[in-house]
Every structure is written in structure tokens, then in C-alpha cells.
Amino acid sequence: AWLKATAERVEKEVQEAIDFAEKSPNPKIEDLFDYMYATPVPNTPGREEAAAIAQQAQGGR
How many Cα atoms occupy the beta-carbon half-sphere of 9 within 13 Å? Predict the structure, then answer.
């Protein structure tokens, strides 16, 4: 009984997390590498490319 109740609570919590994630907006392209590491790495490969793509997607601003 305890195991079944625990499994049901876990299933519910996981489903709530999935629903929250699916309803959340997609992150901006320029934020792609944010929070990837505990300490920001200034020369993260791809950061400049992601910024250029984001700028291009916004009409070159």
C-alpha cells in the first residue's frame, strides 16, 4: 500500500512538472548557454554564433 501510494504521488508530481514545462515559453536563443555551468565560461563555444543568430532573427538589431 505504501509503495503504491508513493508511486502515485511521484507520478502526479512528475506529470505536474511536465505540464508546467510544456506550458512555459521557449527560451530566447541568446539565452541558450545561460546556466549551462555553475560558473559562467566567457568563451563558451557557440555563444557568439547564438548571439549572431538571435540578432539576425530580430531583424539585424
Answer: 6
Distance of CA 47 to the CA centre of its chain: 16
Tens of pLDDT, residue by residue over 19-50, are 999 999 988 888 877 887 777 666 666 777 77
0.70 exceeded by pTM: no
The CA distance from 43 to 15, in Å, is: 37
Residue 35, CA distances (Å) to 8, 12, 17, 29 in order: 32, 27, 19, 13
DSSP per-residue letters across 6-52: HHHHHHHHHHHHHHHHHHSPPPPGGGTTTTSSSS--TT-TTHHHHHH
